[in-house]
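FYI - complex with magnesium ion, inputs then prediction.
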Amino acid sequence: MPGAIHAEGLVKTFGDVRALDGVDLDVPEGTVLGLLGPNGAGKTTAVRVLTTLLRPDSGRAVVAGVDVLKHPNEVRRSIGLSGQFAAVDEYLTGRENLEMVGQLYQMPARAAKARAGELLERFNLTDAADRTAKTYSGGMRRRLDLAAALVVSPPVMFMDEPTTGLDPRNRQALWEVIQELVAGGTTLLLTTQYLEEADHLAHDICVIDRGRVIARGTSDQLKARTGGERVEVVVHERDHIAVAEQVLRALGKGETTVQEHTRKVTVPVVGGAKLLAEVIRELDNRGVEIDDIGLRRPTLDDVFISLTGHGAEEDGADPGRTSADADQAPAGTAGAAGTTGTAGTTGTTGTTGTTGKGGK
Ligand SMILES: Nc1ncnc2c1ncn2[C@@H]1O[C@H](COP(=O)(O)OP(=O)(O)OP(=O)(O)O)[C@@H](O)[C@H]1O
Ligand SMILES: [Mg+2]
């Protein structure tokens, strides 16, 4: 399996922190694995181990058919990496940065130039191509870093939060590039906090928390595990959230989830439309005014919250809370350790123009 990624029992500790606590991963050749997990779960550590940047305490990994611990240099020749923090040379222009990567990989000068031009275009950097990278905005640097990872098309790619900080148009552009790569046979391990992105791009999803794999499967399998339909209510007034939560807890089958800033309360249900009518009646009886109500299938966000007990992006705005932690839930406060300046958005069910998963 020359293009596959395989890891067994990876352990990495930093002092008392078990960043990886026995992680097994398998990414068949030509597929995309979405590695999800809350901040500090161990995603970047896993990527660093698999890309030879960090030695694990124990475990083994084979990437592109080569043992990562025994032959790191050989592995490096078969992989591309775009890290969580953009690594570009500030004093070179965007174009020079990309041409330099081509030269490092011993591409002929003309081919390196052509490839640089093509990537600058794909990532909407043509206008800024001849300015030094130190004049670039955060999103521009990020795009340049991604373009640099794509100058050569290695059989195995690792992308650590590739679209964090990208606007929707540029995110879409990257998704298209990724889908083309995968259609061409590239194997990709991608970490993301945008669950919609994993839903869209990944064939398989692996959720890690505190250095351990806590769930794996396709997006549909994980959603099925999380249960069936749920009722989602948006109340008109913030003061009514608590009553709505009571009503949903009584009529639903499982934990309620509250998102304070959107005044949204959600609960898994059995009984579909009939139950929905009952919820509406009960809320009306209690004098709760409703802005929006509906039945919906679980999203990957629901899966994430039910598995980890908290939402993705804890550092961002209100991550939502579940009834299990309602008492101590500091909704809307910045809580998690090891923060990284990621944007405070949650990747919910927003839709995009494209369909299907790369290479499927
Ligand atoms: N070089 C280091 N020294 C000490 N602790 C570290 C180091 N690198 C990572 N850690 C710790 O290991 C744990 C896992 O970190 P890691 O960066 O892998 O998380 P992550 O899943 O990538 O999180 P994020 O979503 O915030 O990027 C965290 O508790 C982190 O503080
Ligand atoms: Mg990380």
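The CA atoms of residues 118 and 251 lie 56 Å apart. The radius of gyration is 22 Å.
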